Amino acid sequence: MLFNSIEFLIFFPIVTILFYLLPFRYRWIMLLGASCFFYMWFIPKYILILLITIAIDYTAGILIERWADDASRKKWCLIISIISTCSVLFIFKYLNFCSANYVALAQYFGWSNPGKVLQIALPIGLSFHTFQSLSYVIEVYRGTQKAEHHFGYYSLYVMFYPQLVTGPIERPQNLLRQLHEEKALQYDNIANGLRLILFGLFLKMVVADNLGQYVDQVYANPMDFSTLDISLAMLFYSFQIYGDFFGYSTIALGCALCMGFTLIDNFKAPYQAGSIQEFWRRWHISLSTWFRDYLYIPLGGNRVAVPRWALNTLIVFTVCGIWHGANWTFMIWGFAYGVLLIVERGLRNIHVFDKIENTTGRTVVSLLNIGKTFIIVTLLWSIFRATSFANLHDLFAAWTHNASLPHTLHVNAVSWLALGAFIILDLILMQQRFDKWCGQLNSYLRWTIYGGMIFSVIALSSVQHYPFIYFQF
């Protein structure tokens, strides 16, 4: 079920009202049932795949806790759990990719019986489910989280509908703990939750979707467009994917908050970052911290020699790219970030601007760093958005050679206004979330903002219906 659908407009208030009407001991049953219904709205049979990973890691958590004093059995239980859960992810997300590459390789070398390309459908949000489930098992193994013995509560931890499909990826210390707490109806939670939902719908339906129609035109046939057109499409995609994913995460936070649950903030003004490292501290925070805690630090992090640190960085970001999708373009995208972080660390030893002491000079340097980082991120998003090597080649070939072609990409005023409003709000919200900022305004200004956003969502949404971009991951 999509957040930006009529069905969800009916589903959300019913679930929230039932949550507060039911006695505490029955709430988890209703929430789990509602979450299953929410997920099954897409393709019902895929819930069986999700139940497999739930059963694997629920059992592993109990066994790890039971064998806490037996290091060998405990470790093997963790390993089997990780391999089993990741195997489910591999089969449904990467087996098609591997078979396609094998067939292409076999045909290139003329091998007999090259086989055929598999066509296994990817369940929505499988990568998010996998990482959330794995975080629970790892935390139980580390002793920082007690095993959950109630199968229903553990299932709800993985299935919790607000963040079920596209995150944020929650740790058990935060969400699982809250599921056991009795939540009382509070006006502030409802008010702030509804503000977040409205803001998220504005980001998705007015900003991201309007920009998306121009992005799709250019990336579908890049050779037909001029350098200026392609530059605009690159810029628009940076804000499309930000508005789309930030919008989903914000709606998820709002839905959870209406029931008294607090989820992690997934974004903190990433396009105001002054470096690639800072960008990743602000973008998709639940994923970047997952890789930091469960892959980067176990590999040695930055506590090792520089060559080993560089290798760790390349491994982490290449895996991050693969996590996003079974395509060589995603792998290159992730690897490129790893290389940039290594280069960035090397350049820190060149203290070019250290002697600048006046405020104006430092402000200029800061703005230049933000601009530089945004341009790099935008160029890398082009790799991320490309559907194939051929599409990526055509995009950059046209971008560098079609300067003489006339500008044909006509952008309507709504798209420019939506983009401008988004940038202004992003600057305002650098230090605080929309719901908190909006709650501090006087009632006249606050309701003007509400009215403007409601009108925009109803009247200015894109005529084309776009699913959330991160659904494919």
Summarize the structure.
The protein is mostly helical and 473 residues long.
Give a written overview of the molecule.
This protein has 473 residues and is mainly alpha-helical. It folds into 2 domains: 6-109 and 123-185, no CATH class; 193-464, no CATH class. The chain is 69% helix and 0% strand. The protein contains 19 helices and no strands. The protein has helices at residues 6-21, 24-40, 47-66, 71-93, 95-109, 126-142, 151-159, 175-179, 187-220, 227-258, 276-282, 285-296, 306-324, 328-347, 359-385, 389-401, 413-428, 434-439, 443-459. Helix 9 packs across helix 17 (413-428) and helix 12 (285-296) packs across helix 13. The two termini are 16 Å apart. 38% of the residues are buried. The mean pLDDT is 92.
